[in-house]
Amino acid sequence: MRSLLIGGLWLxxxxxxxxxxxxxxxxxxxxxxxxxxxxxxxxxxxxxSHRRGSHRRGVLEPxxxxxxxxxxxxxxxxxxxxxxxxEIVQRP
Length: 92
Prior knowledge:
The chain is of the alpha+beta class and 92 residues long. It has one domain (17-91): 2-Layer Sandwich (Beta-lactamase Inhibitory Protein, Chain:B, domain 1), CATH 3.30.1450. 23% of the residues lie in helices and 50% in strands.
């Protein structure tokens, strides 16, 4: 039982984490910030991907952009909807 708990914690520590904030030096990028603010803090993304809006099971998923950055050995993806930060995903 103990090894299962330790294994679960280990997996959690190294899995991707989604959050609504990212510290960049002494500044914070937060959900709701504009695409312009993202560019000012992080610069030009390594890759930009676009997702079209869709209707699934009666739920409208809005169009979005995913901006990929590589910062200090980790991958950071900023998800933008209508030009605003919706989500920040960090991977080791």
